[in-house]
C-alpha cells in the first residue's frame, strides 16, 4: 500500500512544481505622473458661491500733451459809412434805399471771413441817429440807429468812432451813436481815448483813437502806457489822419506811426484818405497807413474802388508774451458790381487785375 502511495505523491509534487514554473511573475506598474486639473468643476461645486473678490481699481489712461502756444486772429477793414449825405438820403441808389431793412446785405460777401476770427474792427464813419440839427457845410452823413444790426449780423465786434464825421449831427447825434452801440453790445474807442476789450478767447486788446485835428504824440504815449498798466496783451492805435485821395503817407503820419510803435503799440491801423496807402513793418510792429473805404455809403461812384481786409495773427507763448504772427491781406472791391458802388464789399479773385493792384498799393507801388 505504501509503495503505491509514494509514486502518486511524487507525481503530484512534480505537477505542482510544473504549474508553478508556468505562472508569470507580477509585472511592475508604472508610477502615475501628477496631473493638473483642467476640467471644469462638477456642477455641485459650481453651485457653491465663490468667495467675493475685491473690486478691480484700474487707473484711467492719461495722455500727456505738451502745452501749446495760443494763437488768435484779428481782422481790420476800412471806412464804413452806413447812410448817406442829407441831400441824397432818399435817392434811388443811395445806401438807405439799397439796404432797406436787409441788415445782412452790406457784409454778406465778407461775413464768412469776419466770422472766423477772434475780433473784427472797422471805422464807423458817421453818426447813427434820427434826422435833426447837423453841420451846414461839407459832407454830412448819418443813418438810423437800427444800422447797428449791420455790424452784429456782419460779425463785426468793435469799432472806432474817432473820425471827422462822428460829430456831423452834433452832440445829440454823437450821444445817440454811443447809446446805440452800447445797446448792441459793440465796444468803441473815441478820439484821444483808450478802450480795453477782452475777447471771448481770452485776449485783452487795448485801443487808442485819434483824429488829424490834433495828433498829440505825448497824449498818445500816455494812453499806450495806461493800456499797458491795465494789462493789455496787445495795443492798437487807430488814427484818422492823412490827406484824402492820396496814396502815400505824409511825414506827420510816418512820425506819429513810428512814435506809437516806439511807445509800445503793436499795430497802427489808419483811415481817412478814402484810398489804400502802404503798410510798413517798423520795429516790433506794423503800420497800415490807410485801409481805404469799405462799405461806404458816402458815394455812389467813388474814384477808387480798391480796399483790403487785413487779418493779423497774434501769438501768445507759454510765458505769456505776445507777438505778431502772420499777416494776411485780402484785396477787395468796395462793390460787388461794376460801374457803381452798391455798398457790398467783395474780395477780388486771386491774380485778377484788381487783386494785384491792391497789393501794389500796399507795397508802396502805384500801378
Q: What does it look like?
A:
The radius of gyration is 44 Å and the shape is globular. The protein has helices at 2-22, 43-46, 95-99, 111-115, 148-153, 170-184, 217-229, 251-263, 353-362, and strands at residues 70-81, 84-85, 119-124, 141-142, 158-160, 188-189, 193-198, 204-211, 234-240, 267-269, 276-282, 285-291, 293-296, 306-316, 322-333, 346-347. Helices cover 25% and strands 26% of the residues. The chain has 9 helices and 16 strands. The protein has a single domain (70-362), classed as Purple Acid Phosphatase, chain A, domain 2, CATH 3.60.21.10. The protein is α/β, with parallel strands linked by helices and 367 residues long.
**Name of the top-level CATH class:** Alpha Beta
Strand content: 25-35%
Record field, number of beta strands: 16
Oligomer: single chain
Q: CA-to-CA gap between the ends?
A: 163 Å
* CATH level-two architecture: 4-Layer Sandwich
Structural classification: alpha/beta
Shape: globular
CA gyration radius, whole angstroms: 44 Å
Total count of helical runs of at least 4 residues: 9
CATH superfamily membership: Metallo-dependent phosphatases
Unreliable residue runs = 1-51
Biggest sheet, open or closed, and with what strands and sense?
Answer: 8 strands, mixed
Average pLDDT level: 86
CATH topology: Purple Acid Phosphatase, chain A, domain 2
- How many structural domains does the protein architecture include? 1
H/E element string?
Answer: HHEEHHEEHEHEEEHEHEEEEEEEH
What percent of the residues sit in helical stretches (DSSP H or I)? 25-40%
